[in-house]
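hiii so um. not sure if this is the right channel but i have a protein structure encoded as C-alpha cells and i wanna go backwards to a sequence. like what aa goes where. can anyone help
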C-alpha cells in the first residue's frame, strides 16, 4: 500500500498566519499534539499486511485495505482502525454473504492467530468483525466489500492535503463534538465521517472558498467505477488549492459553529461536498423525515441517518449554538473544549 505524507504547502503562508492569534494557536497546538503520527500508521499497516496474508489462506484473491480516519488524514493518536476486506469488486449481500465470510474470518482469527484478541462478529447493517491486535494495542473493525469506504477514504485524504487549514480544523471539530457527546452514530448522533463532510462543506461554501469540489474539478480521478487498485493514486497527483481566503484557524472554527448554529437550513437542505453547496433534499423516502441530511459523495446515501430522534437532533443544534456564543464572547478554546486537558493527555501517550 502506498502512503503519501503531508508536507506544508509552499504556496501559502497559512501556517505562519494561523499561529498569531490565541484561539488559532490553541487549535494548531491541539492538532499538532493529537494528530496521528507516522509510527501509528505504520503499526496499523503492518498488522493489515499480516492479516491479509492470513486471510488469503481462506480467500486467495482477496485484498485487505486500511480505510477511514487512519488513512484519510483526519486520524488522531487514539483512533481505532477500520479494514475493508475485498473478495470481489462487485457488491455482496451484507445480510448473507458478508456475514458468512466474516464468520469464517472470525473462526480463523480465534483458532489460528494468538496475537488477535476477542474477535467478535457484529451483525449490523454492515456487519463487522471487531478485534484487538495484542502487539500494537490497536482496536480494529473489519468489514467485507464496503468498497465505497475505500473510495471516500482517498477522496477525504486528497481534501486533507489540498489546503493546510483543513486537517487542524477537522480535528478540533471532532474533539469538540466528542466532548459534547454528539460524535457517536451508535448512540444516535453524528459519525466522524459526517462531521468531516460538514467541515468540508462549510469550507466550500464560504464567500471566498477554501476548498473546491474535487469531484467536479477532477472527475476522472474520483470516478466511482475506477478500479480499486488505482484509487490510491489520486492524492499524489492533485496540486494544492490556492485559496485567496486568508481566514485564521480561529476564525474558521468560529465560522463553522456559527454556520450550523444560525445559517444552515436543516429542514430543507442537504449537505453536498460533491456539489460544493447545500442542495434541496431529494423527495426519496430515504431523505424524508430525517433531521440531518449529509450526502455520501459516491453512493449518495445519507451518512447522518443515525440521527433519527428529535431530542438528539435538538442537542446537536443546542451544542452548536451554545459553543458559538461562548467562543464568540471570549475566543478561548477552553470555554468549549478542555484544551489543556487534551494537550496533557496527548503528551502522556507519546
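sure thing!! here u go:
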Amino acid at each position: 500500500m502506498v502512503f503519501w505524507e503531508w508536507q506544508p504547502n509552499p504556496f501559502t503562508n497559512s501556517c505562519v498566519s494561523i499561529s498569531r492569534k490565541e484561539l488559532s494557536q490553541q487549535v494548531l497546538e491541539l492538532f499538532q499534539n493529537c494528530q496521528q503520527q507516522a509510527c501509528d500508521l505504520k503499526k496499523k499497516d503492518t498488522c493489515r499486511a499480516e492479516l491479509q496474508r492470513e486471510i488469503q489462506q481462506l480467500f486467495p484473491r482477496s485484498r485487505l485495505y486500511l480505510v477511514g480516519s487512519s488513512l484519510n488524514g483526519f486520524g488522531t493518536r487514539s483512533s481505532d482502525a477500520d479494514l475493508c476486506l475485498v473478495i470481489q469488486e462487485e457488491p455482496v449481500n451484507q445480510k448473507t454473504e458478508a456475514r458468512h465470510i466474516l464468520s469464517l474470518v472470525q473462526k480463523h482469527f480465534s483458532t489460528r492467530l494468538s496475537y488477535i484478541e476477542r474477535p467478535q462478529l457484529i451483525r449490523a447493517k454492515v456487519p463487522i468483525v471487531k478485534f484487538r491486535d495484542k502487539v500494537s494495542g490497536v482496536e480494529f473493525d473489519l468489514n467485507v466489500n464496503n468498497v465505497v469506504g475505500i473510495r471516500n477514504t482517498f477522496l477525504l485524504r486528497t481534501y486533507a492535503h489540498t489546503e493546510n487549514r483543513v486537517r487542524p480544523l477537522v480535528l478540533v471539530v471532532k474533539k469538540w463534538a466528542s466532548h459534547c457527546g454528539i460524535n457517536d452514530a451508535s448512540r444516535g448522533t453524528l459519525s466522524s465521517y459526517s462531521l468531516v463532510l460538514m467541515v468540508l462543506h462549510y469550507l466550500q461554501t464560504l464567500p471566498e472558498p477554501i476548498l473546491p469540489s474535487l469531484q467536479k474539478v477532477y472527475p476522472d480521478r474520483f470516478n466511482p467505477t475506477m478500479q480499486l487498485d488505482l484509487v490510491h493514486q489520486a492524492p499524489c497527483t492533485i496540486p494544492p488549492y490556492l485559496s485567496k481566503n486568508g481566514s485564521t484557524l480561529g476564525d474558521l472554527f468560529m465560522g463553522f459553529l456559527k454556520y450550523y448554529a444560525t445559517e444552515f437550513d436543516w429542514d430543507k437542505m442537504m449537505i453536498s461536498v460533491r456539489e460544493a453547496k447545500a442542495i434541496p433534499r431529494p423527495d426519496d423516502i430515504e431523505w424524508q423525515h430525517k433531521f440531518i441530511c449529509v450526502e455520501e459523495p459516491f453512493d449518495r446515501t445519507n451518512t447522518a441517518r443515525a440521527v433519527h430522534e428529535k431530542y438528539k437532533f435538538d442537542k446537536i443544534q443546542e451544542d452548536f449554538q451554545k459553543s458559538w456564543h461562548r467562543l464568540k464572547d471570549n475566543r478561548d478554546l477552553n470555554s468549549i473544549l478542555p484544551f489543556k486537558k487534551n494537550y496533557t493527555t496527548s503528551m502522556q501517550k507519546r
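oh and Residues 1-20, 343-350 have pLDDT under 50 and may be disordered.
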